[in-house]
Amino acid sequence: MIASVTLNPAIDYTVALSDSLETDAVSRSDDYRYDAGGKGINVSKYLVELEIETVATGVAGGFLGRYLLERLSAQQIAADFVDIDGETRLNTTVLGPDGEYKINQSGPRVSRLAVDEIIDTLCEHDPETVVLAGSLPAGVGPETIDRLAKAGPWETVVDMGGETLTALEAEYALCKPNLEELAAATGRRIDGVQSAIAAAEALRAEGFDRVVASLGSDGAVMATPDRTLHAPAADVDVVDTVGAGDALLAGVLASRSRRESDAAALRSGVAVASRVVSVSGTRAPSLADVRDERDAIAVSAY
């Protein structure tokens, strides 16, 4: 089983506009949706579609927290969240003809007691892998992430900001930065695949067994103990990039849970991400035949 931990979940509100936003004008739309979101939750969503056993946990509060749990139940995603004071946040994505606009709320404070309850929840489910993903809310720092990683016999995967990655001290099986997070974590300027490969290798040397970095239109790289791999992005029509990195991570983890090779895992990640960016919002598209598509993705080794 793979358990995801989202310490700062959200309801993702996505709205599409036919005209550009203008000041002092009312924009109207009939094309909108609400999804249960947050990086860890997104990973669990995609794992369900990939037929991997998963449970999503974390914290939830207020009426948006209740709605989040309702949405997870409706999507048949196993969830076991800790109830907290405060309000689960609302994240807004506006899809307009001239690009995407994103407004993310900060979220409520998370106490040490709530983290204790999350640890108890994880121990009850006894996962093989724990994914710690998303932004850190008030009250939580890198030491909390290390504490969660050390709390049980599971292997730990982390997907967080670059500054957090550099402050971690526990052992981690894998981390998954995006391009900006990779640059922040290494202090390097990344302007292409080769510089991304060098940065991923440098970050891996800081204590991560593997580093998977999403590079947008340049695809993704995976630094392993033996070599570094690169897979180009698939040629698809991009509708919405929200959840792309989470989809990449879910594809990699699904493949690893089946004991497949690193190259197969990277192919799977890119294939899943390609499906996800072709739909709006963070809903999970059908991934039933995505393993067939991954074989067309070329992987280069360095």
Please explain how this structure is put together:
By secondary structure, this protein is an alpha/beta fold. 35% of the residues lie in helices and 24% in strands. The protein contains ten helices and 14 strands. A ten-stranded mixed β-sheet has the order 5-4-1-8-9-10-11-12-13-14, with helices on both faces. Strands 3-2-6-7 form a four-stranded mixed β-sheet. Strand 8 (129-133), helix 4 (142-150) and strand 9 (155-159) form a beta-alpha-beta unit. Helix 6 crosses helix 7 (193-204) and helix 8 (244-257) packs antiparallel against helix 9. The longest helix is centred in the last third of the chain and has 15 residues, at 262-276. The protein starts with a strand and ends with a strand. The mean pLDDT is 92.
Primary descriptors:
single chain; 302 residues; alpha/beta; ten-stranded mixed beta sheet; four-stranded mixed beta sheet; 35% helix
